[in-house]
Amino acid sequence: MPSKPDLSIKESQGRKNKKPRKWVRRTGLSLLAVIFLGVVIFMLIPSPVQPAKWLAPSAPSFEQAGPWQQNNKLSSAELVTDAPKFPEFITFDKEGTLYTGDSDGKIYKVAFDGKGNPQKAQLYADTKGTPNGLMFDASGNLIVTDVQKGLLSVDPSGNVTVLADQVDGTPIYLANELDIAKDGTIYFSDTSNYGRVTFKEIAENKPHGRLLKYDPATKQTTVMLEGLYFANGVALSADEDFVLVAESYHYQLTRYWLKGPKKGTSDIFADNLAGFPDNITRDYQGHFWVGLFTTRIPFVDQMHGSPWLAGMMAKLPQSLLSGASAPVKHGLAVELNSQGKLIGSWHDPAGSLYGVTTAVNHDGYLYIGTAPGGSQGVHRVLLTK
């Protein structure tokens, strides 16, 4: 006759099995309570900014025929030098030597041989800051806009002098890019009184940038234009009747009139660009080349239409938002004529060259610079007619 099961043992095992289940259930409920409480606290914390609503225009399509249509013109880019990791801006001296800065403060120069082949990069100077804009004045000094130091002058021996770090009793918060007129006047951008690039400013969607002017004769700096949405690239027209400044966060180029009946006023030169315009350069035809650091980010455009969402995003730590504002891996530069009409766009849809800040038309090549977050080194592509 089979033995009867020991019910006391089963009951004991049942009690033991119930204990882990209760512990898991209680732990899960506790975690949910903590998460819920954290969400409530996050929602109740005031946002550090009061965002302004903006209905961003629909981005141009890369699929439709026209000047924005996608191509592979940048995909064949060759490396000129990888000495500077992030060559924000590129300029040339009268002999055709290339100069560019890096985010660690160093400025390099690259000579070319008789066949146009780049030689090994050489260290030219060190600003101990972050040099962005570079251009030679009539005396052979390299004028530099340094985001940490202000407006600088570097003599041929590499000695660095501060020309301006204040205007009207306030700091020059983030000197970014420049151009120099024939009379020596320097026009340059002060990107934002935030003093650094931060997602909070994108979320806030309010203008904090300025266009400044430095007079080398009087050594005085004045404000030309205020209320710019992340003031960036700067370029004079061929006749110097106006100066352009890029407003990166509103996808547009603004024109400030220096001569003529509109002198002292501003208007929009080009708008609804397909990305965030960075630097502007002018070529021998009087055309403007613009590097677009990233193509449009749909989430950012949607966020601008919802101040509540933008305010929530601004609460998050910058470290968590770096991915949200990282450049799309799609290289892009554009050419505009002197009236602001888009002539054509240059793409690398594969993203081997991206985070484009500068496009310089020089001696049959288009030279490309980038910034942190993008690809590294100076590149160039052959310009074809």
From TrEMBL:
Regions crossing the membrane: 23-45
Q: What Pfam families has UniProt attached to this entry? A: SSL_N (PF20067), Str_synth (PF03088)
InterPro entries per UniProt: 6-blade_b-propeller_TolB-like, Strictosidine_synth_cons-reg
Domain of life, per lineage = Bacteria
Gene Ontology MF terms: hydrolase activity
Organism of origin is Paenibacillus kribbensis
* Residue stretches making up the Strictosidine synthase conserved region domain: 176-261
Q: What is stated as this protein's family in its record?
A: Belongs to the strictosidine synthase family.
Protein name as annotated: Gluconolactonase
Which UniProt keywords are given for this protein, alphabetically ordered? Glycoprotein, Membrane, Phosphoprotein, Transmembrane, Transmembrane helix
Return the annotated region ranges for Disordered. 1-21
